[in-house]
Amino acid sequence: MSEGERLWRLWRSDLEGIVVRATHEELSGKLKALSVALGILGTLALGAMIWHDGQLQQQIDEDSADVRRDAPRVAAAQALKQRTLHMADSVQAFEALQQGGSALDGLALLTRQFPPPPATLLYVRAEPGALAFAGSGDEASVQALRERGLPGYGPLQDLPVPDFLADSNPAIHLQTQKLPPQPPADTAAPAAAAALAPELQRPPAP
Q1: pLDDT at residue 200, rounded to an integer
Q2: How far is residue 31's CA from residue 28's CA, in Å, rounded to a whole number?
Q3: Where is pLDDT greater, at 48 or 162?
Q4: What distance, in Å, lies between the first and last C-alpha atoms of the chain?
Q5: Which residue of 9, 84, 114, 199 lies most exposed, with the fewest beta carbons within 10 A?
Q6: CA 129 to chain CA mean position, Å
Q7: pLDDT exceeding 70 applies to what percent of the chain?
Q8: At residue 196, does pLDDT exceed 70?
Q9: For the residues 121-149, what does the mean pLDDT come to?
Q10: Which domains, from first to last, does the chain contain?
């Protein structure tokens, strides 16, 4: 049926016609309400973020003030720690020197016993129980050192020339070992007499 015929039948009938109802207004209302709710939630979230940022900034300012206030005390504590460590190292070094037999004793002894110029001391390895050294000089310097020796040390022996001194070809290259400490003479005799006392008191065999 064509459109015209349908309209003609509708006009001649008792029907009142077709009513077109608009539904977009209801949808627009829902969208407006949802937009208002989302706007309120966004405003609340933004306010919470601004408040939280203010609290963080206040905490940062307070922490910065505490750091600036404590900085001198921290620096003083660090300086005190460094001085304490240095003092501890100094005490250990002093105790090592007081124990005797240190490497510095051997170095000081060598400088006193070393031959005069033209002999020149080029290398020293001083340890608590050994002493090694090398230097320039002549055969007389070597002979004088061997004859004189170092008090408290054993005979001087040849030392292999270190590689970094090979080019200078030092005439003096010697090493020695520290001798064990000897008991004083005034205590050695009573100790020997005490050891022989039982033998003297024992009656002779029949």
Answers
A1: 45
A2: 5
A3: 48
A4: 167
A5: 199
A6: 31
A7: 77
A8: no
A9: 85
A10: 103-177 (3.30.1360)
